[in-house]
Amino acid sequence: MLFGSHKNHLPTAEEALPGRPEREFAVPDRHTVLGNPLLGPYPEGLEVADFAMGCFWGAERIFWRADGVWTTLVGYQGGHTPNPTYEEVCSGMTGHTEGVRVVFDPARVSYDSLLKLFWEAHDPTQGFRQGNDTGTQYRSAIHTHGPAQQAAAESSRDAYQKVLTASGHKAITTEILPALDRPFYPAEGYHQQYLDKNPAGYCGIGGTGVSCPVGVGPAPEK
């Protein structure tokens, strides 16, 4: 993965790269594993969840394997630069995370279950890094769609913090922010379902080994 010289500083809107009004590359029509369209509009009744947890190659695979997930795609979210490229995001001058958009059927998999996958699959205490990957684009984040997701994400964070603290881990640094006004910009085609196309490819995802409380409601008092 590429690293820039600004990997430990989140740029302000004034500092960020200017970007462009339209995406300068094509995004594939369909998911290589699930077979469904990558870009919306999505079928009625499905919901969208956005997560960032380090390198998006491995993160996406975790979610496309989950029962009830209709499609996944990787992209850039939470920054200032419109329609960024991978190289721009890796420069540290856009402010975006490497994110995964998860489109799911809530009748088959709950948002709480997706949150549990999110927390357990990475280390949310590392700030601007994930494992050996260092940079603001690798920070942990949840971008929520509506008040119910916001409340569930915050509740799950508080529950997981209790068990992490009891296990000797540091404070969670995960951003939990509304997706509204934080557009999700799909990444280049070669990043989509990267580990399906390259089964032996790089995957930097790794959790703390601490289980998130089932149901991710309030953790039991210690």
TrEMBL record:
<comment type="function">
    <text>Has an important function as a repair enzyme for proteins that have been inactivated by oxidation. Catalyzes the reversible oxidation-reduction of methionine sulfoxide in proteins to methionine.</text>
</comment>
<protein>
    <recommendedName>
        <fullName>Peptide methionine sulfoxide reductase MsrA</fullName>
        <ecNumber>1.8.4.11</ecNumber>
    </recommendedName>
</protein>
<comment type="similarity">
    <text>Belongs to the MsrA Met sulfoxide reductase family.</text>
</comment>
<dbReference type="InterPro" id="IPR002569">
    <property type="entry name" value="Met_Sox_Rdtase_MsrA_dom"/>
</dbReference>
<dbReference type="InterPro" id="IPR050162">
    <property type="entry name" value="MsrA_MetSO_reductase"/>
</dbReference>
<dbReference type="GO" id="GO:0008113">
    <property type="term" value="F:peptide-methionine (S)-S-oxide reductase activity"/>
</dbReference>
<feature type="region of interest" description="Disordered">
    <location>
        <begin position="1"/>
        <end position="22"/>
    </location>
</feature>
<keyword id="KW-0560">Oxidoreductase</keyword>
<feature type="domain" description="Peptide methionine sulphoxide reductase MsrA">
    <location>
        <begin position="50"/>
        <end position="203"/>
    </location>
</feature>
<feature type="active site">
    <location>
        <position position="55"/>
    </location>
</feature>
<dbReference type="Pfam" id="PF01625">
    <property type="entry name" value="PMSR"/>
</dbReference>
<dbReference type="InterPro" id="IPR036509">
    <property type="entry name" value="Met_Sox_Rdtase_MsrA_sf"/>
</dbReference>
